[in-house]
Amino acid sequence: MVKTLGLTHIALAVRDVERASRFYQQVFDAVEVYRQADFAQLQTPGSHDVIVLEQDAKHAGKPGGVKHFGFRLTKPTDIEAAITAVQQAGGVVREHGEFAPGEPYLFAIDPDGYEVEIWYELPTPVDPPIRPRRLVQSARRAKKAGRASGKRSRS
Question: What is the sign, positive or negative, of the torsion defined by CA atoms of 151, 36, 72, 141?
């Protein structure tokens, strides 16, 4: 068995790297940690999650077996804010509701046609411990200052 930090990386073909980057920054507060003209790498604050955006209009929005990818909310009450953020960032909310009482969700379509799930799940026995807020804020400041390490190459 190989120990990992879990599923932490997805690479997406997009029509416009700048537009896609703005969408994920606005909706998820992602931080761009690496950039080339046709390629961007973003991370979500306080996690090891990486979103790679590659300019490739021919393949943009085509799932190739990936039906959707998801971002798990930290509070169920944030679902309404997520709906607003998606719409303001140029996405479309396809569906929203509750999987079970106390577990709200939404499925949205990003500007390139990818389906993104945003949901809250009641804590499970395998969830990582919650990090103190000051550590998350410190990591965000370091990334914005350009001190992020471990740049990923294209997938």
Answer: positive
Identify the residue whose tokens are 């599923």: 7
Dihedral angle sign, alpha carbons of residues 79, 122, 20, 133:
positive
Instruction: Kindly compute the dihedral angle of the four CA atoms of residues 28, 80, 84, 21, in this order, to the nearest 10 degrees.
Output: 10
At residue 25, the pLDDT reads 95
User: In terms of Cα–Cα distance, which of 44, 9, 10 is closest to 24?
Assistant: 44
The amino acid at residue 50 is: V
Report the chain's mean pLDDT, rounded to a whole number.
84
* CATH class of this structure's domain 9-143: alpha beta
pLDDT in tens, 30-57: 999 999 999 999 998 888 888 999 999 9
**Of all helices (H) and strands (E), which one includes residue 23?**
helix 17-28
Beta strands in the chain (DSSP E): 9-14, 31-36, 39-43, 50-55, 69-72, 92-100, 103-109, 115-119
Spatial strand order of the sheet with 103-109 comes to 69-72, 115-119, 103-109, 92-100
